[in-house]
């Protein structure tokens, strides 16, 4: 990087902070901070939903998969995400929007107190926050890895720089700042992605290979196969189910995009836009990665540095800075949205249970706590980022695929399926059992069993078994021990209907410990 590249990077950081300061004027209460007051247009929500699902892991971990295996990086990652969001546009997006518009909640997990009980809500809230710390930590580590390639600064310095800049704009501006910065980041990503695509096509022509002749090169032998290596059919099916839950609200930050739109119909439109972007745009981003074995030689066994090396080799200064800004835009978009979601969960769901004074917070006090929580979460995730490459977690892509994908099912199934009428019989017993046994299955297949099997448990089973265990138990226990009380059925009716008909009658107040922790609505 030279002075021009640094100018582009510093200018980008300045714009992000300015957007956060401008967005601060639009945040008057907790609802504005967490759900944009339900006033976000569908197209902005859709772009924000799309951008908040990316990170620099794509340019490190998935670049390594593309370098090693080829097109399977698209077939087993962005394609199932696009399909999952398309399905969720009908199945989940409208219902999640009604959590705000009809139940008047500001956190995706608030409704779980009434849908199940307080214990279930707290179990999912605390475990989800802990998983998010690890997940976002992997994202910080990914962008810091790329930054070290270009600038030579240490991993920890890169984590500190990106984390602090993100903390400034997302803490003061809330979800509005997240969405508006993600819109700007989308434009930057578009320019950077096209620049890299064109640079690779030109380089292939200069080498006499050509756009269409590349696949015949020996270095890309077998790279046109959709399912190879550990990424087989079982992995693809498991990943589709995981992404169906994760990218429609299971990881919380995407749920906020649906909640932020004015109506259920607008939430559905935003989901369809996000699905279309996930299907088309990654093809542009992945093509240079597929071609990377022809252009560079990775210095790392997993190929995770291939995209960074190719960028340095092919792009002139200025454009190089723009592509680096693109790396940052992905990671900062995802991490800021995650921070906002976790702040919502802690402020609305956890704090009132562990701290009596939190039950009577004013709007101003709640907003201050939300901002403090955002900073604390970012700090903890940055600390976790320094440990991502430790023996406990493994490399970056291991954290993202094995830990996040493997643990997603047990945490998301009770939340997401609890919205749907066919699963109305599943109550607290089904939810807590599926959650706890899914976590136990994850630990067993990834550690005791994995260590005692020759060659280890294949990756496809490491991520699919916890999901299968949770799903089967959630459905089975619902039939063995149905807990569909009138109060719970009323909640389900609320999120499945619009209007003021009989099915959308006022939700009865849940009995028991839930009453003791009733929270003010934002």
TrEMBL record:
Gene3D superfamilies tied to this protein: Sodium/glucose cotransporter (1.20.1730.10)
Membrane-spanning ranges: 6-22, 74-93, 129-153, 159-176, 183-202, 228-245, 275-294, 314-333, 369-388, 400-420, 432-449, 461-480
> What Gene Ontology molecular function terms does this protein carry?
symporter activity
Task: Identify the main location.
Answer: membrane
What are its GO cellular component terms? plasma membrane
Membrane disposition: Multi-pass membrane protein
* Pfam families xrefs: SSF
Compartment(s) of residence:
Cell membrane
GO process terms (BP): sodium ion transport
Chain intervals for the UniProt region annotation (Disordered)? 501-522
InterPro entries, from UniProt? Na/Glc_symporter_sf (IPR038377), Na/solute_symporter (IPR001734), Sodium:Solute_Symporter_SSF (IPR051163)
Q: Which UniProt keywords apply?
A: Cell membrane, Ion transport, Membrane, Sodium, Sodium transport, Transmembrane, Transmembrane helix, Transport
Q: Where is the composition biased (Low complexity)?
A: 501-515
Q: Which family does it belong to?
A: Belongs to the sodium:solute symporter (SSF) (TC 2.A.21) family.
Report the protein name in the record.
Answer: Sodium-coupled permease
Could you tell me which species this protein originates from?
A: Streptomyces davaonensis (strain DSM 101723 / JCM 4913 / KCC S-0913 / 768)
User: Taxonomic lineage of this organism?
Assistant: Bacteria, Bacillati, Actinomycetota, Actinomycetes, Kitasatosporales
């Amino acid at each position: 990087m030279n002075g021009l590249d640094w100018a582009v990077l510093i200018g980008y950081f300045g714009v992000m902070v300015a957007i956060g300061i401008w967005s601060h004027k639009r945040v008057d209460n907790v609802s504005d901070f967490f759900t944009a007051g339900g006033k976000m247009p569908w197209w902005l929500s859709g772009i924000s939903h799309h951008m908040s699902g990316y990170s620099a892991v794509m340019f490190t971990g998935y670049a390594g998969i593309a370098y090693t295996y080829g097109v399977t990086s698209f077939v087993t990652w962005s394609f199932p995400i696009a399909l999952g969001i398309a399905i969720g546009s009908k199945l989940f997006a409208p219902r999640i929007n009604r959590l705000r518009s009809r139940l008047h909640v500001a956190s995706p997990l608030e409704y779980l107190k009434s849908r199940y009980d307080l214990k279930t809500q707290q179990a999912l809230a605390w475990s989800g926050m802990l998983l998010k710390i690890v997940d976002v930590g992997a994202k910080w580590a990914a962008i810091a890895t790329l930054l070290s390639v270009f600038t030579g600064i240490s991993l920890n310095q890169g984590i500190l720089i990106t984390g602090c800049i993100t903390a400034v704009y997302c803490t003061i501006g809330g979800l509005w700042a997240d969405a508006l910065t993600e819109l700007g980041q989308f434009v930057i990503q578009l320019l950077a992605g096209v620049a890299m695509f064109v640079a690779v096509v030109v380089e292939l022509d200069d080498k006499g290979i050509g756009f269409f002749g590349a696949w015949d090169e020996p270095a890309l032998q077998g790279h046109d196969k959709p399912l190879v290596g550990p990424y087989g059919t079982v992995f693809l099916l498991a990943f589709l189910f995981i992404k169906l839950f994760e990218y429609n609200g299971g990881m919380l930050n995407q749920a906020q995009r649906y909640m932020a739109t004015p109506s259920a119909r607008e939430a559905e439109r935003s989901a369809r836009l996000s699905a279309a972007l996930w299907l088309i745009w990654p093809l542009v981003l992945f093509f240079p990665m597929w071609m990377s074995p022809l252009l560079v030689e990775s210095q790392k066994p997993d190929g995770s540095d291939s995209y960074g090396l190719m960028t340095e080799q092919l792009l002139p200064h200025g454009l190089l800075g723009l592509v680096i800004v693109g790396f940052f835009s992905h990671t900062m978009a995802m991490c800021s949205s995650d921070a906002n979601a976790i702040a919502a969960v802690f402020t609305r769901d956890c704090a009132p249970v562990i701290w009596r004074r939190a039950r009577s917070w004013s709007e101003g006090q709640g907003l201050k706590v939300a901002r403090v929580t955002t900073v604390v979460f970012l700090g903890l995730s940055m600390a976790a980022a320094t440990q991502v490459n430790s023996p406990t977690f493994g490399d970056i892509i291991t954290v993202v695929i094995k830990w996040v994908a493997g643990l997603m099912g047990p945490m998301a199934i009770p939340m997401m399926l609890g919205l749907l009428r066919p699963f109305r019989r599943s109550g607290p017993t089904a939810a807590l059992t599926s959650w706890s046994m899914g976590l136990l299955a994850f630990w067993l297949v990834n550690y005791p069993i994995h260590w005692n099997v020759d060659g280890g448990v294949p990756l496809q089973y490491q991520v699919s078994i916890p999901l299968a265990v949770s799903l089967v138990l959630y459905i089975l226990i619902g039939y063995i021990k149905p807990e569909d009380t009138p109060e719970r059925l009323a909640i389900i009716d609320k999120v499945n209907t619009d209007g003021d008909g009989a099915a959308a009658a006022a939700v009865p107040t849940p009995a028991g410990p839930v009453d003791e922790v009733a929270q003010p609505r934002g």
